[in-house]
Write the structure tokens for this entry.
Amino acid sequence: MRLSMSVLLFCFFLLMLDLIVQRMWLKFCCFAMFRRKAQEKQLKEQEESLQEWEKKLKESQNRLVDLQRSVNDREERANRNDQLFKIKHGELEEARKSVEANKLALKAKEDDINRRLNELHSQEMVFNLIPDCLFFIWC
């Protein structure tokens, strides 16, 4: 019986050991499950955070594209305005040269008219003196 008592004790010890192992396994499984759920929750939060970051990034990229388009439009308008300015400046320079040439032509005509008027005035004075001279010659 002694053997059977030690066998019984051994069996009891094995049962207790088995219970301890099962409890430890259960605790490990619970811990693993808790840890997995915590990791899943953390991964989900990170994924949501990344999605939010991607959304903000796309919005920023769209704003940047819009701003770049606006800058390009302004630059294009500025280039067109520069071209128009150069054309208008050229036209203005041509008009200034034309006005200057017309001014010189008018000045030449004015000088010619004044010269002719002076000649006419001189001739008129000569013609006005002729009758007086003729009168003195005949008298």
In short: DSSP finds one helix and no strands in the chain. Residues 83 and 98 are 22 Å apart (CA to CA). The first helix runs from residue 2 to 138. Helices lie at 2-138.
